[in-house]
Amino acid sequence: MFPPLNEQMDLIRRGASEIIPEEDLVRRLERSIKTKQPLRVKLGCDPSRPDLHLGHSVVLRKLRQFQDLGHLAILIIGDFTGMIGDPSGKSKTRPSLSLQETRRNGQTYFEQATKVLAAQRIQMLYNSEWLGKMSFADVIILASRYTVARMLERDDFTERYKAGEPISVHEMLYPLAQAMDSVAVSADLELGGTDQKFNLLVGRDIQREYGQEPQAILTMPILPGTDGIEKMSKSLDNYIGLNESPKEMYGKTLRIPDTLIYPYFELASNVSNKELGEIRKLLNNTLTNPRDIKRRLARTLVEMYHHAEAAAKAEEEFDTIFIDKNVPDEIEEFTLKAGNGLHTVVALLTRTRLASSNSDARRLIEQGGVSIDGEKVTDLNAPVPRKKEFILKVGKRRFLKVKS
């Protein structure tokens, strides 16, 4: 029923930051093979943000690997803990959500997560099913199982305490509530990002306190965004969304720094370990143009979330706009916002400083030096196109990606 232990561990170790303790996981896998019982692999989901991106897919893909190995994925939607808000990495108290908001976001989360996860061998639960039933006495008993000193060992709590930033008591309940999720489902293993390490370790302690065998934990790296600097985040606009169009997904992938090509293949794609080795060799070869490998990555990601035909079409469209028209991969972006008064191309050129004035903008148009997506602008009163995204070119070398 299950692959051999070494084969399982080779896949499990891929891209993982830490497995704590690894010997515990090995022992559980050996027992699983012997008894023919799948491991119960838990992943808690934060429903505060309903839109998923490749950063979220890293840990989801690891959960999918456990599914492929024959184990049971337990996806816990934190509708109850979402009302607390995970304080991990936060410099201030996080605003709470209502149960209705967390439920609504949770459903959206699940719909997107199944783009990565297999519908088989998965169990989706809402943690309000058990946390919502706990009495105040139950909470007091739970709180008595963990000390304030240990809670303050968290880096984010320590920094906030030293800085005089407020820490609400309810925030300290979050790791305990997440730990009770592990108790409720008798988790063998819990997955999470490296920023979740403290919470996952609390889960081990609380399971032990409640008479269960402590879960092993596996942490995955935090995927950098397309800027190559910050953590992937929608608020920083450095993300590649799981629900984005093939064209958008392909184009954004080609904008990542070359240093992220291998990590994206390793953490966000389903290429085999053998292919990964080949990709590493190519990237280490000075004769290789990284752009070619990046195009392969872009096609791979589009195929995963759409299909091969969509990937081929996205590449063709990209080549038509960027290569045939000599548009560079990395160009500045400008976002059109409602009410900014930029209704004409002339006004847009002036506002974005591609022209020094309205009269300069009109002169550039008259001389045939302005184009949108490769088409010359000839009308001095031409309106700004009603497109989600287009490339504005002035002269031979000045480009601007305009988004709305």
Please explain how this structure is put together.
The protein has 404 residues and is α/β, with parallel strands linked by helices. It has 17 helices and eleven strands. The strands form two sheets. A six-stranded mixed sheet has the order 1-6-5-2-3-4, sandwiched between helices. It has a five-stranded mixed sheet with strand order 7-11-10-8-9, with no helix packed on it. The protein has three domains: 5-220, HUPs (Rossmann fold, 3-Layer(aba) Sandwich); 246-323, Tyrosyl-Transfer RNA Synthetase; 333-403, Structural Genomics Hypothetical 15.5 Kd Protein In mrcA-pckA Intergenic Region, Chain A (Roll). It has helices at 5-13, 22-35, 54-68, 99-113, 128-131, 136-143, 148-151, 155-162, 169-185, 197-209, 246-253, 261-268, 273-284, 290-305, 308-323, 345-351, 358-366, and strands at residues 18-20, 40-45, 72-77, 122-126, 189-193, 216-220, 333-335, 370-372, 375-376, 389-394, 398-403. Strand 5, helix 10 and strand 6 (216-220) form a beta-alpha-beta unit.
What are its keywords?
17 helices, alpha/beta, five-stranded mixed β-sheet, Tyrosyl-Transfer RNA Synthetase, 404 residues, Rossmann fold, Structural Genomics Hypothetical 15.5 Kd Protein In mrcA-pckA Intergenic Region, Chain A, 3 domains
Q: Roughly how much helix do the residues carry, as a percent range? A: 40-55%
Question: Uncertain segments of ≥5 residues (pLDDT<50)?
Answer: none
Strand order of the largest sheet: 1-6-5-2-3-4
Q: How many strands, what sense, and barrel or not for the largest sheet?
A: 6 strands, mixed
Under CATH, the homologous superfamily of the largest domain reads: HUPs
The CATH C-level class name of the largest domain: Alpha Beta
Query: Per the principal axes of the C-alpha atoms, what is the gross shape?
Result: globular
Which class best fits the helix and strand makeup? alpha/beta
Number of strands: 11
Radius of gyration from the CA trace? 25 Å
Strand content: 5-15%
Count of distinct structural domains: 3
Q: Do you know the CATH architecture of the largest domain?
A: 3-Layer(aba) Sandwich
* Rounded mean pLDDT score: 89
First and last CA, distance: 51 Å
DSSP helical segment count = 17
CATH fold topology of the largest domain? Rossmann fold
| SSE string | HEHEHEHEHHHHHEHEHHHHHEHHEEEE
